[in-house]
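FAQ

Q: What does a record look like?
A: Structure on top, sequence underneath. For example:
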């Protein structure tokens, strides 16, 4: 049961209705339970929706597959059922099995970096950071780190609020999760 219910259409202010319409139009996406809950504060909604341009930047740097796996690794490390299920869905829909991913050593290093940011609250050990430093530019590391931060913020929001997993995601829950 969510601690704060998503806004129903009749509860939405004009400001948030406009923000929702713009968001759906620009990103060709739906207003999920998380977004409808964020709608209680238009400022919070706008801040959290900056996830989208940062994810686009991450995809530009790594490609869609690795960006999705990076977001999933951060969400799993944050123990966020909602976000990890969202990315699990994306992985499955791209034709991969999340339980049997084929990942290169370089990809694994980046995924380990993202998970470590979440698990260690940003205190990433040198043995995890150094391989990233060797392969990526300052700009790329800033994008990876900033994206991990906004992903963690999203994970924390959903975990604190107990945001209900959207119905369209329930078929993608792992065997260890429940809606």
């Amino acid at each position: 049961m969510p601690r704060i219910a998503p806004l129903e259409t009749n509860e939405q202010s004009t400001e948030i209705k406009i923000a929702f319409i713009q968001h759906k139009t620009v990103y060709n996406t739906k207003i999920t339970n998380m977004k409808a809950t964020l709608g209680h504060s238009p400022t919070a909604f706008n801040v959290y929706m900056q996830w989208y341009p940062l994810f686009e930047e991450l995809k530009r740097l790594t490609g869609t597959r690795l960006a999705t796996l990076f977001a999933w690794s951060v969400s799993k490390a944050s123990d966020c059922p909602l976000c990890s299920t969202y990315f699990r869905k994306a992985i499955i829909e791209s034709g991969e099995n999340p339980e049997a991913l084929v990942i290169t050593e370089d990809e694994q290093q980046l995924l380990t970096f993202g998970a470590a940011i979440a698990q260690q609250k940003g205190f990433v050990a040198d043995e995890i950071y150094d391989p990233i430093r060797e392969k990526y530019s300052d700009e790329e590391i800033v994008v990876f780190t900033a994206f991990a931060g906004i992903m963690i913020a999203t994970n924390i929001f959903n975990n604190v609020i107990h945001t209900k997993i959207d119905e369209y995601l329930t078929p993608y829950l792992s065997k260890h999760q429940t809606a």
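Q: Is there anything notable about this one?
A: The CA atoms of residues 38 and 45 lie 5 Å apart.
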